Amino acid sequence: MQPLVKAGSVQANSTTMKKEQFNFVLNIVRAQPWLGDKIDELEHVLFSECQCDASRQLISEIIDKFLYVNRENNYLLIESLASEIINEYSDRESTTLITAMGTGSATDSSQLIAYTLKPIMEKKKWRRHAIINDFGAVYKQYKRTGHNHIVLIDEFVGSGQTVLGRVGSIHTQLKNAGVLDYSISVKVLVSTELGYGVVTSAGIEMSAQKLIKKGIDDYYSLEDAAQYRDLMRAIEGNLSTEYEGREMPSLGYNDAQAAYYREDGNTPNSVFPVFWWAFDCNGKERNVLMIRAMGDA
After folding, report:
1. Domain 71-212's class?
2. Which residues pair with 192 in a beta bridge?
3. How far apart are CA 186 and CA 101, in angstroms?
4. Reported confidence tier of residue 7, pLDDT bands at 50, 70, 90
5. pLDDT tens digit sequence for 29-45
6. pTM above 0.70?
7. b/e for 192-203, b at 16 or more Cβ within 10 A?
8. What CA–CA distance (Å, rounded) separates 189 from 156?
9. 26 closest CA partner among 59, 4, 54, 45
10. Domain locations in the chain as residue ranges
């Protein structure tokens, strides 16, 4: 179990914080202990970028809703995904093709999952399937081995749009080659309910080990949610509007409003950008609670 607060974190900062601020931060860290070594960043967001108590309260409430996945739990989610594949496709082992959602030479968390699955599948005595790290090579793999039951895997689904694009591309690959006998399913570690609904409404079979709600819309009344979205956009006014031509994804990409963080992970752009967008409205570096490689912004 993680310590509530790491040594030298909140306590060391208490001398520079007012008592009210200290207690406010301490209550947040009690609810989310993984923030214990991010006190400076948390204080910056709350008291430098939030201009009123209402905005600070909103940030606090959203943080309280975060699904935090540490290294151990991430591995357990991958193990659970492996067991699900084996149980569902027990009679299709020799025709199951597991493919990362990533493509080409770009690094992607789905490729990490694919790599991690290899020894897990071996430990579970599943050996006749195939695993690849590029969904663009599905037809190439099919042509070589005949594996035609395709399982697309990823760490996280936000808006669901990437999944729709990947599945559509695989359909094109196979149908253009005259392949008609195949199936596609999608299995991820974590998904927003929004993304899950978008994918399944398109008739695509999908499962997620964990589902999360929108950080604002799914927790408040319609009237309150509208006010809180406006308040979050006001907080986002502290952020730069773009980075090298990439627009800052207000409320998370495609309004996903995701509240999710994986230890050591590249934060999805579906997460509220106030937590990870690296530059302020003056172009200066921000103290961010979470990291996302801005080349992926």
Report:
1. alpha beta
2. 212
3. 9
4. very low
5. 999 999 999 999 999 99
6. yes
7. bebbbebbeeee
8. 6
9. 4
10. 1-49, 71-212, 213-297
